[in-house]
Design goal:
Helix content: under 10%
CATH superfamily: YhcH/YjgK/YiaL
CATH class: Mainly Beta
CATH architecture: Sandwich
Largest sheet: 6 strands, antiparallel
Number of strands: 11
Order of helices and strands: EHEEEEEEEEEE
Strand order of the largest sheet: 1-9-5-11-3-2
Distance between the termini: 22 Å
Shape: globular
Radius of gyration: 14 Å
CATH topology: Jelly Rolls
Number of helices: 1
């Protein structure tokens, strides 16, 4: 997991081949103009998910992780509150891994809550279980999903 501001994102671009185009997109696109939903930025390598919704509070969120994508969750407005645990310490939900949606849910409660105010991002790797939208009030965020197997 990485937490920082978009202004500091260049220092992480060498960690994964997809981070440079992902952070460039976040820095240059007119993010506030995108409608909620999912769209491809670079076919299957970079996916964009735009969320503009009321936060669910700590009690209303659910732990998840992904195998095929790394999440870069960037807050545009409002302040998200995201729960975190290492996947290795989580108990999988009986529903199992959904390969079509690339999501595994967990039954645990977060050990750590990360406030992610506007202008900040959190990177979640496949080893990071995360519970997004734990804040309250309107949260407008962009999630850039970066393919783990970048080719």
């Amino acid at each position: 997991m990485i937490f920082d501001t978009l202004q500091q994102s260049a220092q992480y671009q060498t960690l994964h081949a997809g981070f440079a185009p992902a952070f460039d997109f976040l820095r240059t696109a007119k993010l506030a103009t995108f409608y909620p939903g999912r769209k491809a930025i670079d076919e299957e390598r970079l996916q964009l998910v735009v969320v503009r919704d009321e936060g669910k509070g700590r009690e209303g969120v659910r732990f998840e992780s992904h195998r095929r994508y790394i999440d870069i969750q960037y807050s545009l407005a409002g302040s998200d509150l995201i729960g975190w645990n290492p996947v290795a310490e989580c108990s999988p939900d009986p529903s199992g891994y959904d390969a079509d949606k690339d999501v595994q849910f967990y039954t645990n409660q977060p050990k750590l809550w990360i406030p992610c105010p506007a202008g900040h991002f959190v990177v979640f790797f496949p080893t990071d279980a995360h519970a997004p939208m734990g804040g309250t009030g309107l949260i407008h965020k962009i999630v850039v999903k970066v393919a783990v197997d970048w080719q």
